[in-house]
Amino acid sequence: MHVHAFDQYHFKQSQIHNLDPRVKVLFTVGFIISNAILPDGSWLAFALAWLVLLFINDQSGLGLGFTFKRSIVVLPFALVAVSAIFSPFGEPLAEWNLGLIILIPTDLGLIRFISILVRSWLSVQMGILLVATTQFPDLIHAFEHLKVPRILTTVIAFLYRYLFILTDEGFRLMRARDARSAGLPGIKSGGSIQWRARTTGSMVGQLFLRSYERSDRIYQAMISRGFTGHIRTLNPHQMDQMDWIMLGFSLIILILIQIVGWVR
Amino acid sequence: MPVKHQSQFEIQIPECEGDILQIHDLHFAYPDGQIALRGVNLSICAGEKVALVGPNGAGKSTLMLHLNGVLGEQSPVSIAGLSIDSNNLPLIRALVGLVFQNPDDQLFSPTVYDDVAFGPLHMGLPEEEVHQRVKKALNAVQMDGFDDRLSHHLSMGQKKRIAIATVLAMQPQILILDEPSAGLDPRSRRSLINFLRDLPITMLVSTHDLYMVQDLFPRMVIMDEGKIVADGATLELLEDEVLLETHGLELP
Amino acid sequence: MLFSPPQLHIPDGFLTILVSLIFWVATIIIVGVAILKTNQSLGERQIPLMGVMAAFIFAAQMLNFPVAGGTSGHFLGGTLAAIVLGPWAGILVMTAVVGVQALLFQDGGLLVMGANIFNMGIITAVIGFGLYRIVIHQKKGARLVTAGIGAWIATMTAALITSLQLWLSGTTRLEIVIPAMLGVHALIGIGESLITVAALTFIAQTRPDLVETRKSAVDGGRGWIIAGVLVTLLAVLISPLASGNPDGLERVAEDLGFLATGFSAPFQILPDYSIPFLGETTISTILAGIVGVIVVLGILILMGRNLYKPKEIEVK
After folding, report:
1. Closest alpha carbon to A142 in C33, C52, C36, C99
2. CB–CB of A164 and B106 under 8 A?
3. Chain A residues touching residue B151 (CB < 8 angstroms)
4. What is the Cα Rg of chain B in Å?
5. How many CB pairs under 8 A join A and C?
């Protein structure tokens, strides 16, 4: 059984795939910041940002609709922002008397709500593009190059490496539990909340111990190969001319978007 | 019925002063009091291929962990004439290539390249040299081109080979393998046996696979209850049915 | 399809730059200290330990906990991590987990990651371990009960702070988000609490050396008690204040200039393009319909989603 959810990388031969991972990380972060800086209601600027997104989708060989299809993730959290519609700023649009409460949507509130959704939607898609065009180990290298503390990047590397194995063990524990959790028709089964918590707790505890003992063996393997506490890493990425050009180009685009958003 | 085939090597064990590995009266008890090793003596010479067999719990893995100082940092073990102590552990660990039973414990880096490079990198070698060693090691285990692969995409057989590559990259004097054929399907097992046969390096291999022992290892050491109970020519020992049965060994 | 952890992961776009920045600064400082401290106490053993533990927390978050009918809750693990690994290592582990969730699954944004790490990793460590530290030399029963209480309070406080962050960014109204978040997480917190206690019980039985008190006391000094108790008190005080008297808090925030951030800019843009207001009545009716549907759907989904794992891992 292979859990594909962790393999977000889609291999294609493209300019984007071959870019230095640092450039891609920096652009992703820059893109998200740019959208966050844009004022509410900068629809033209947001549209421009979206065009850039579509362009990268296409250039990476993944197809124009690639990120759009996967971006529905944001939808549920959008509900959290619904109350922004009723922010007490700007002109009221209506007054809904619902008995106990009076809801007053405002124009600025509505604009704020939609802007939040748009920013969020754009950011998620950029994030999807990043991991679809960059192998995770290369992402980790990018962070190392960008001076993220080595202990964090190493922990993340281990996380990624053992994620599949541990979730596999977790699923096996769950299946074992399910296999022992028969329910006869007509009879309410499943046990009390406390019982269920205890079962889940045992699964968590078991998974913890197996993980802990595994980390012991990994430690032995590491010191057997000369590890003494200081992690050394290779620096396999060099920025070439294309990388610098793309970096400069991205900066210009983001500034352009900002100008469109702010100048009115 | 075991098939006796023409042996390709000399049956008698050459006189050996243990120039690669020498252990004199090794004792070891775990922190909880459980005694694992009761006075082990062993000598291995350059070029020898030695099998270590015995029932589970005999102390085989514990013994192996002593051979590169993971357990018992100050112990009566000497590698290539060097006594193991806390000062020369880095050197010892470069000389002794220990390959664990579970390759998932040994392949802990994101990519194959990272894992094979780990050893030479932590020996302090310059990047160019590290790169060369990775290439050579992958070539030695016939896994060229696997550099960018992610460990969790590999099959068991592939992982076992890469695990061997990770220690070969350190150019050890002796290769120590813990149950290398465990968990392999027949084809991968055959492939591994051929590979080990062709590898010109001193070897100590712990295994339950007596056919493989018969095939590859002229010398066999039987361990039981923390002690070495027999040490001699494989083919001779395998004829002693009483000996085998007493210590839980069977030619299937 | 992806799994669904307790929904405290704020996506990008929901917090303003200012709020994001404030929490980034706080997180970077605290995580920086955590790096120094773990170096001292765990030494070379820390890297494989924390790495595998991070994978463990990630995997544990995927185990589902059947609550009622077909719904199930999930486990966050911040308190458990802080208690068994020590608070500083716990923080680092949760930082890695939040980071990878944001990168790989877009569960939580990149710009707002500082806030997410703060809520899910740091607060849970401060409260979870801080309170535990008080009874660290007591008998096992007292320690387990305290761990459970700590886990619940930590979950609630994380929800509270998330709400405040959303409100300060002008993303939600205080009187709506506080009851919703706190209400939902009161239930989730119980699950977290029970599972934390059950897991600790199991570990204490099979490997008592891993939860031995001397080790934990070394990793986290008494300062944690002060921090934990203080944050708990603050949370307890603010919650009723926020739900009961939002106007008071809003005035304070207004005076500090938070709430109006960004609300004035589009005023000029509005008349020229965006929403073509043909007539107030037509638009307001349409709007009412849309918003009404969204709100009702929202309440239903929010109620169900936080207890339900709607997406399954795609298995070959």
Report:
1. C99
2. no
3. 161
4. 18
5. 335
Q: Of A1, A37, A120, which is closest to C316 when you measure between CB atoms?
A: A1
Taking phi over 0 as left and psi of -120 to 50 as alpha, with beta for the rest, B98 belongs to beta
Q: What is the mean pLDDT of residues C111-119?
A: 95
Collect all residues with Cβ–Cβ distance below 8 Å to C193 and sequence separation of at least 6: C148, C149, C151, C152, C155
Query: Which residue's structure tokens are 């209506």?
Result: A94
Residue A240 exposure: Cα atoms within 13 Å on the Cβ side: 7
**Cα R_g (chain C), whole angstroms:** 21
> Would an 8 Å CB–CB cutoff place B128 in contact with chain A?
no
Q: How far is C150 from chain A (nearest CA, A)?
A: 16
Q: End-to-end CA distance of chain A, in Å?
A: 56
**Beta-carbon count within 10 A of C156 CB:** 22
- C-chain residues near A169 (CB < 8 A): 59
Q: What pLDDT band is residue A223 in, cutting at 50, 70 and 90?
A: very high
d(CA B222, CA C293): 76
The DSSP string of C35-82 is HHHHHHHHGGGHHHHHHHHHHHHHHHTTS-EEEETTEEE----HHHHH
Contact B180, B234 (CB under 8 A): no
Q: Where are the alpha helices (DSSP H) in chain C?
A: 17-42, 46-60, 78-85, 87-105, 113-117, 123-134, 140-168, 174-206, 213-219, 223-244, 246-255, 266-269, 280-305
Two tokens, residue B25: 């009266």
Backbone angles phi, psi at C39, to 5 degrees: -55, -45
Q: For residue C92, give Cα distances in angstroms to A62, A156, C35, C260.
A: 35, 10, 7, 35
Query: Alpha-carbon distance C20 to C23, whole Å?
Result: 5
Dist CA C10 CA A77 (whole Å): 8
What are the tens digits of pLDDT across the range C189-226?
A: 888 898 899 889 988 888 887 776 555 555 667 788 88
Model confidence at C29, pLDDT cuts 50, 70, 90, reads very high
Q: Is B83 exposed, middle or buried (0-12, 13-18, 19+ CB in 10 A)?
A: middle
pTM for this predicted structure: 0.84
